[in-house]
Amino acid sequence: MRQCSGLALRGQTPALLLAGTLALAACQTPAPQPAPPAPTPPREAVTPKPPGGEPAKPPPAELTALRRGAWSDLPGWRNDDPAAAWGAFVTSCRALRRQDSWRDICSVAEAMPPPDRETARRFFETNLTPFQLVNPDGTDEGLATGYYEPLLRGSRKPSARYRFPVFGVPDDLLVIDLAELYPDLKGLRLRGRLEGRRVVPYFDRAQIEQGRAAVAGKEIAWVDDPIELFFLQIQGSGRIALDTGTTIRVGYADQNGHPYRSIGRTLVERGELPLEKASMQGIKDWARANPGKLSELLNQNASYVFFRETPADTEGPPGALGVPLTPRRSIAVDPRFVPLGSPVYVATTWPLSSRPLNQLVMAQDTGGAIRGAVRADFFWGFGEDAAREAGRMKQALRMWVLLPNATRLPQETKSD
Q1: Which of 28, 78, 152, 361 is 20 to 30 A from 310, alpha carbon to alpha carbon?
Q2: Where are the alpha helices (DSSP H) in 238-346?
Q3: Range with the poorest average pLDDT among 2-6, 13-17, 238-242, 262-266
């Protein structure tokens, strides 16, 4: 899970996380139809097992933000190569297949050899229907931002160089699921701690940095750069190259319950950065030039992310769906409106460009700043190129979610 994005916010869970409560209404699902066999030689698709075993069943999403469409509505659909998203789709199926409407479709997909371009296109067109995502006011345009998997330098032991700890979840952090007492509040969760017999808000960033939380002994590693650690929390997952020569992976585990506040916006409001330079790269440049001001700036964002160590041999970091993310084929979405795990077609442009970026992706992650129906955070992958593209992506977006043909929208059901 990502805290935030774009100027990028990622993996964070806000103090109150509102989950969708309206499940889709569907008539009986027809048997999926496999596309004709691919002419290319069969090869085994490798899908790494996610940490924690089988992913949980994706939560239901509201489908009131959807409008039934047609394949001809998708800009550039004939130009995209859906076979490039096939591995990400089969990975999503590890969660989707637990839903009745997806079970047969995913069974067929998992049994097929990796298809070529046209075979994959026919499979999706035969078994799925595109539904366009729309805003409450009826408009269909939103925002695409980007995120990536950063690389930090660190050590298992603190030293003069490695002074900034990457913490696991503290023992005194409480997560209160209100639905256990009040079913109408399904999906509402509070973070806090006990103070005597009272539940009070959990410590904010400054208090955690001061050592007031129960984080002693929860250090996964220590890193050498506080601004890189801050952006690791924003991205929600990353790699740490240890001084022993090995590299570990860490992923989002939990959050302190405080809302995210953009430090880029703070710098702009203070007149310390012009708006056009308030990108991830611009903030890092400011931090290098103003080390004495950095701690105070970071504390303006009370939100704090805790991590867990994840297997280092997976092909990608785990997203909120519990499966590894695929560079340029995975996105973070608002699960209230986009069913987690589903294929999504995005129509946007490359960062700082009018060059079309229209392609099939999978909704495999979420983020604290990814709020709204037409909203996506595009996963660029690992490395310097991914960091550059993610840090400057803030593009106009249209989206279509691809759902089994039998899917019925709530408004369609009411009209029957």
Answers
A1: 361
A2: 263-269, 280-289, 291-298
A3: 13-17
Query: Average model confidence (pLDDT) for the chain?
Result: 86
User: How many domains does the chain divide into?
Assistant: 2
- Is residue 158 located within the same domain as residue 306? yes
- Report yes or no on 37 lying in a domain: yes
CATH code for the domain of 170: 2.40.240.50
Contacts of residue 137, Cβ cutoff 8 Å, sequence gap at least 6: none
| 326-355: average pLDDT | 96
Question: What count of other Cβ atoms lies within 10 Å of the Cβ of residue 19?
Answer: 16
Instruction: Match 């303006």 to its residue by tokens.
Output: 300
Domain that holds residue 352: 22-147+316-415
Q: And the tokens for 188?
A: 């509402």
Share of the chain above pLDDT 70, in %: 83
The total number of residues shown for the chain amounts to: 416
194 in any annotated domain: yes
Inter-residue contact 289 to 296 (CB < 8 Å): no
CATH number at 59 reads 2.40.40.10
Whether 306 and 219 have beta carbons less than 8 Å apart is answered as no
Q: Which of 190, 324, 338, 236 is nearest to 1 (CA)?
A: 236
Same domain, 163 and 212: yes
Q: Are residues 122 and 51 in the same domain?
A: yes
Does 390 lie in the same domain as 298?
no
Of 7-11, 61-65, 72-76, the one with minimum mean pLDDT is 7-11
The answer to whether 360 and 81 are in contact (CB under 8 A) is: no
Across the range 383-405, mean pLDDT stands at 94
Strands annotated E in 3-78: 3-4, 9-10, 25-26, 66-68
Are 130 and 71 in contact by the 8 Å Cβ rule? The answer is: yes
Of 50 and 61, more confident: 61
Residue-level pLDDT at 416: 55
Is residue 226 situated within a structural domain?
yes
The 3-state DSSP class for residue 106 equals helix
Is there a single domain that holds both residue 237 and residue 254? yes
pLDDT of residue 193: 93
CB 320 within 8 A of CB 363: no
3-state SS assignment for residue 61: coil
pTM of the complete model: 0.78
